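job 3f2a | input accepted
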Amino acid sequence: MSTTSTLRRMANVNGEITPLEDARISILDRGFLYGDSVYEVFRTYEGVPLFCHEHFDRMENSAKLIAMKISQSREELLEEMRRTAAAANVVAGQDIYVRWHVTRGSGALDLIPAADLPTSFVIILKEVPKWNPEFYSRGMRLAVTEVRRNPVEALSPDIKSGNYLNNILGVSEAIRTGADDCLMLNPSGQVTEASNSNVFFVIGGRLVTPNVESGVLRGITKRAIAQLGAEQGFPLDDRPVDANELEQATECFVTSATREVMPVVSLRLGDGRWHEFPPGGGEVTRRVAHAYKRHVNRYVADHQSLRLIA
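job 3f2a | predicted structure (310 res):
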């Protein structure tokens, strides 16, 4: 059972903890200037950061893909998160949202970074996002956009970087069409992902999701669902999904660290027609959502040592 307190939104910039609105970084920071950074987000359940080590593993992989060596260890960053949580007045068992960026650091105003530049970090801590309840009771609306996902060969979406302009353009276009989020295709016309979540479909009775080669982020929630599916009778088919298959889909949902499993009630196709799905999610979507909640409960019970507040 969660305990509540007067949570203060706080930030930690290279060890300096301030209220979120007072946080400052150098204008020469490469994350600010060029989006030259990697980041992760997790939320806590009863104070336990969900899939904590998996998020750090993915951050380290993102840094490797952009040839950035992170100066801070994961133990140092976790300790800074705990310090920030204490300053934010978080109490034991209270759930919070934590987002942390590691940038290549501050240096000369030049695209080429100094070889010995130490990385900087920013931790943002606030309340867990409250999504529109209708997104769960009925479902959200997606729209296929003309904005295409960055091709893997140019800037791999498998890098969770601070450069989000592609996603911003996609979701902005989707909202103009009356949707809540975008569904971006890659340059070959294959489905990739929404602006900040992985997407799943039921096609021909099978649960399918676009694979990494199509141009998607390796979702941590998605990986958990793949493991659950193999164990509980809804195996996940991770493969290319062509845009022309979307009309055959009978269910759709998205996943992320903060959305969990969120049903999609309608999808605007590339020709402007709306394709409908069962309100509140179909049978497979509901099974996945229930299985995921049980999985989270088991994770929390097994990882009490990771709590950010003792």
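job 3f2a | The helical segments are 30-34, 52-65, 74-87, 134-137, 165-176, 220-232, 283-302.
job 3f2a | closed
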